[in-house]
Specification:
N-terminal domain of MutM-like DNA repair proteins, alpha+beta, 10 strands, binds zinc ion, four-stranded antiparallel beta sheet, 6 helices, 24% helix, single chain, Helicase, Ruva Protein, domain 3
């Protein structure tokens, strides 16, 4: 699933492609396939016709296109990607929506699993209103971070995935950050000493910044950021059975926490 680094890389890619100042001229959606949850979640994209893009913003895992009269929010779901390509180029498989821009290019939504969605908001602040502070934003100081976790009894890993507490961390980068900070994913947040919570805050920033840089340095053949691959070098943990802790070299433990597969080291994460 695209998490903060993948969505931030998408934002930077859209800016590089020069979409600011372009106007949506035409929107076409795939026909709803029988028996599938088809175009409903992206149908509101039709309202963008005639609107000019004046900003591309991100908060957590959500992206928002600021338009003349409203904001088009986009959530990439599990497998959504946005590409910019020339009108004349053939559309890739799993193209769900084609939003034609005023410079002979198309902004296209490609999404094999159809969980990505668009939503119309009145303003940027409304688009991001349900989200906690962004995990990479400087306003999320070490002090604010510890405050948001230190009096909660729940296990730390599911709390990290709660976008209302801190926005941008998903399953994979939560595991990476907890491993880096040497904290067990099952620890109750209120049992973790302040110094360790501060270490976790630093580990999250290091992990996310590392991933943003990795994606930037490894574009696909068309210069686009590619989607998260849990097995590439941006990950310290090899997320498969038989993976080892890079510090202790013992097999990683695999657990289900809040319905999400969790990889951790039972020796160095306490
Ligand atoms: Zn270990």
């Amino acid at each position: 699933m695209p998490e903060l680094p993948e969505v931030e890389s998408l934002r930077r890619y859209l800016l590089r492609e020069g979409i600011i100042g372009k106007t949506f001229e035409l929107v076409s959606l795939e026909r709803k396939p029988p028996g599938r949850n088809g175009s409903g979640a992206i149908a509101c994209a039709k309202q963008t016709v005639g609107q000019t893009i004046i900003g591309v913003l991100r908060h957590g895992k959500q992206i928002a296109l600021e338009l003349n009269d409203f904001v088009l929010g986009a959530h990439m779901g599990m497998t959504g990607q946005i590409h910019i390509q020339l009108n004349k180029e053939p559309k890739p498989r799993f193209t769900r929506a084609v939003l034609t821009l005023s410079n002979s290019t198309d902004l296209i939504l490609v999404d094999p699993r159809r969980w990505a969605r668009f939503q119309i908001f009145d303003s940027v602040s409304q688009a991001f209103s349900k989200l906690g502070p962004d995990a990479l934003d400087d306003t999320l100081t070490s002090e604010l971070f510890t405050k948001r976790f230190s009096n909660r009894k729940s296990q730390i890993k599911p709390l990290l995935l709660n976008q209302e507490i801190v926005a941008g961390i998903g399953n994979i980068y939560a595991d990476e950050s907890l491993h880096r900070a040497k904290i067990s994913p099952t620890r109750g947040a209120n049992t973790i000493p302040m110094a360790e919570l501060r270490r976790l805050h630093t580990a999250i920033r290091t992990t996310l910044n590392h991933a943003v840089k990795f994606i930037e340095n490894h574009p696909d053949e068309l210069g686009r950021p590619y989607i998260v691959d849990a097995y590439d070098e941006r990950m310290q943990l090899k997320r498969k059975s038989g993976g080892f802790c890079p510090r202790c070299e013992i097999p990683l433990a695999i657990n289900q926490l809040g319905g999400r597969t969790t990889y951790f080291c039972s020796k160095c994460q306490r």
